[in-house]
Amino acid sequence: MTTILDVAAVKADFPLLKREVHGRPIVYLDSAATSQKPHQVLDALNRYYEEINANIHRGAYHIAEQATTAVEDSRAALARFVGAPETTEIVFAKNATEAINLVAHSWGRTNLDSGDIVLLSAMEHHANIVPWQQLAAERGVEVRWIPVGDDGHLDFSDLDRLLDGVRLVAVSAASNVLGTLPPIRWIVEAAHAVGALCLVDASQWVPHQPTDVTAWNCDFVVFTGHKMCGPTGVGVLWGRSDLLNAMPPFLGGGSMIRNVTFDGFKPAEVPARFEAGTQPIAEIIGLHAAVKYLEAIGMEAIRDHERDLTAYALQTLSERLGDDLTIHGPNTVEDRGGTLSLAYRDIHPHDLSQVLDQHGVCVRAGHHCAKPLMTILGVNATARASLYLYNDKADVDALVDALVDAGEFFAL
Amino acid sequence: MAGLEDLYREIILDHYRNPRNRGELEVPPAKVAEGFNPLCGDEIQVYLMVTDGMISDIRIGGQGCSISQSSASMMSTAVVGQTPGEAREVLRSFKEMMSIHEHGLDGEASPSDQRPDPSGLGDLEALRGVVKFPVRIKCATLGWNTLDQVLGQVDG
Asked: 3-class DSSP state for residue A106?
């Protein structure tokens, strides 16, 4: 039996969730954009600056060694957290976007040429679209799309044809708009069956579910720290060691070299090869604190809590708002996460979020960096409420109350 | 604290519910420009017909939030019948009113707020409250920036 998450205790760990907005307690429902940070993470950031602030992999003095050890401990913790076989397979990047760009530039420019095909899903974030379109524009790589059906699921009916000639499949493990959870292991198998590699954008998965890159059996996984209770400015690329070892550097500069002469340079081993310049040391250490925080609560408990809360949200929203409300994406909790893209009457999402803000309810309005998907949904924008471990039923109730108020405000 | 009523003035909601000059014009003879708000996905088309040195017709297409739609609607009624030069003058006054630097981010009324109609903008004054919601300024100026583009295609 998994442990039950004590949401009141969790909430108390997050200083920001104690504040008020417009005279009301804040109801933070935008964790798909960025999560709030528990004091354990904030304390870790401060502790680094107050006690061991020094550059890493350089000085032989005590605090430099402490800082270096703290960064490498974080790498090891992240490897364990996502089930990576080797700690050296964890590469720190600025965010998931940079991690995908790293793969596109380094692996992509080494391995892909005119006529090669990259297969994406139509529900990708721009971060997992534009780097491949840049490759397409530069060297004639073809980008293909796995379509999204009306039910918010990927439509695999034509997959065999789509996979023909594909070198890389790049898909999200969880949609940042629809909450859809595509069958990653199955997709990886299909990709490998035609000799393609598979990159998984797990930015919306790792914060919410137990992650096992070995079980997925994929080739690259990217995610970002700030959506999993960690600081901004640090993300992670996991790559199979044989792939990483064969890849040239992405950014050039300090720390990523074995030797530099007047004639040229020799790159360092992996992962240093991909970590040019001074790293976000505090943030890497803060991300370790976030991992410890999430592990202490338990990723199964977090997943179960969010699943229960998502079920409550789906039920309450439909009971109280009925046909006035559309929830884009899958309508059962078994195959979706707690990211709810909403359309309420004909109120524009911007206006909706403005009224919700007056209630202290924070939701995201816009295209969520998924404009191709928006065209499939037939909208320019949605209002997106996204749930996380610190949200409770009262937050969902506040969302529904605020939506009712918005309906009255904009009623003809 | 700026309240919703500062943003959603009655005249704004009226233009949102009953947008003026919606539609398209044949291009050519009319000119058209398209504007996007990359942050929220709103898009707008401004069709402009200039006859004998005067804006004889203007149409607004596209979709967006109440602020972007009502602002474009009010814009259309403000500039129709004007010369392109006069329209540019209204455009300049409006963008000045939307300038965050002159108003500050704290929502405090600036001295010019106290005057009844400092810029001669008429109904457009209703949009002044948008400045207290800095995120929405881009919504209010979307149609105007698109008008700026289409005016750029008009000779003289």
From this structure: helix
pLDDT given at position B63 = 87
**Shortest CA distance to A84 belongs to which of A321, A331, A291?**
A291
DSSP state of A16: G
Query: Do the beta carbons of residue A164 and residue A136 sit within 8 Å?
Result: no
Of A310, A288, A222, nearest in space to A31 by CA:
A310
SS3 of chain B: the string is: CCCHHHHCCHHHHHHHHCCCCECCCCCCCCEEEEEECCCCCCEEEEEEEEECCEEEEEEEEEECCHHHHHHHHHHHHHHCCCCHHHHHHHHHHHHHHCCHHHHCCCCCCCHHHHCCCCCCCHHHHHHHHHHHCHHHHHHHHHHHHHHHHHHHCCCC
Residue A117, helix vs strand vs coil: strand
Do B3 and A350 lie within an 8 Å CB cutoff? Answer: no
Out of B41, B133, B136, the one facing A374 most closely (by C-beta) is B41
Q: What is the value of ipTM here, to two decimals?
A: 0.78
- B-chain CB neighbours of A412 within 8 Å are 17
CATH number at residue B88: 3.90.1010.10
Contact across the interface for B66 and A351, Cβ inside 8 Å: yes
Domains of chain A plus CATH, in order, are 7-30+299-409 (3.90.1150.10), 42-296 (3.40.640.10)
- Give the span between the Cα atoms of A282 and A75, in whole angstroms: 13
Segment-wise mean pLDDT, segments of 10 residues, chain B, 156 residues: 77 88 93 88 92 95 90 93 93 86 47 49 83 87 94 80
Instruction: Evaluate whether B80 touches B58 at the Cβ level (below 8 Å).
Output: yes
Report which residue type is found at A371. K
Nearest residue in B to A364, CA atom = B40
Range of the domain at B126: 4-152
| Range with the poorest average pLDDT among A80-94, A140-154, A251-265, B90-104 | B90-104
Question: 0.80 cut: is pTM over it?
Answer: yes
The strand pair at A382-386 and A220-224 is best described as unpaired
In 3D, which of A130, A110, A94, A134 has the Cα closest to residue A277?
A: A94
Cβ contacts from A onto B, under 8 A: 48
B34 touches chain A (CB under 8 A): no
Per the annotation, the verdict on A369 as an active-site residue is: yes
Mention every residue, 6+ apart, whose C-beta is less than 8 A from residue B9. B126, B127, B129
Number of H helices, E strands in chain A: 15, 17
Q: Which amino acid, A29?
A: L
Site from B14, B17, B65 to mutate, A interface, most A CB atoms within 10 angstroms: B65
Do residue B40 and residue A22 have CB atoms under 8 angstroms apart?
A: no
Tokens at residue A121, please? 């899903």
For CA atoms A395, A396, A397, A401, give the dihedral sign.
Answer: positive
Please give the tally of structural domains in chain B. Answer: 1
Start-to-end Cα distance in chain A:
51
Give the number of residues written for chain A. Answer: 412
